[in-house]
Design a protein that fits this description.
The protein has about 210 residues and is mainly alpha-helical. Helices cover about 70% and strands about 0% of the residues. The protein has eleven helices and no strands. The radius of gyration is 23 Å and the shape is elongated. The termini are far apart.
């Protein structure tokens, strides 16, 4: 009887050790958890298939990133995450993968965690103005939630870095103007309204203009 109990315990322990973690396809970097043998085999087969189709894994990663953004803009967030994860499998040094992860987390309202991925992306490529803009938006959302001035100042800093890289980006200068409506001094608000008008006079709302009249 004792032998049977030990054998049963061993079988159950073995099953638990090989249980596949669920839901990891919908988490950045597959949730950074160990995969089961079945999931590892799926990864291996996927990589082999890509190796047979694409010139390199870096090129394959770009293809899957493009697919991921397509799903993102079609509001298919689960599919977008899965394609970004596949891109991550192919090339963990591609900065745009982490930008994608950050945007997806932002869409879910997890702005604090999104910042981790934006920062990782910028560590790899600090010249992508759109990542600075995404990071600024997350800081702005944290400000709306907490009403603390620190994230608002960080949002300003990120928007300015984006604008330094792309000086003619009316969308970014317009967002900077909007941020400065939260300050009593209106010099910066006026500055960025004027700059935005030079680039695209349709962006600034009339209620913002009235603040400097």
């Amino acid at each position: 009887m004792k032998t049977i109990i030990i054998l049963l315990f061993t079988i159950l322990s073995s099953c638990n050790q090989h249980k596949c973690p669920e839901g990891i396809n919908d988490l950045p970097m597959y949730g950074e958890v160990p995969k089961c043998d079945e999931q590892l085999k799926i990864d291996t087969d996927f990589l082999k298939e890509c190796d047979s189709v694409f010139e390199s894994r870096k090129i394959a990663a770009i293809h899957y990133i493009d697919l991921a953004w397509g799903h993102f803009y079609e509001n298919q967030m689960d599919l977008s995450m899965r394609r970004f994860n596949q891109a991550w499998l192919l090339d963990k040094e591609n900065a745009d993968v982490y930008w994608g992860f950050g945007n997806l987390l932002g869409k879910k309202g997890d702005f604090e965690k999104s910042l981790v991925y934006f920062e990782k992306s910028l560590q790899m490529n600090s010249s992508n103005a759109k990542v600075w803009e995404s990071k600024a938006i997350s800081y702005g959302q944290i400000f709306y939630k907490t009403k603390e001035i620190t994230p608002l100042n960080k949002a300003i800093d990120c928007f300015k870095k984006a604008l330094k890289i792309e000086p003619n980006n009316a969308r970014v200068s317009g967002q900077l103007a909007h941020v400065y409506t939260y300050f009593s001094q209106k010099d910066s608000l006026r500055k960025y309204i004027e700059l935005t008008d030079q680039l695209d006079a349709t962006i600034i709302r009339e209620d913002l203009r009235k603040l400097i009249d």
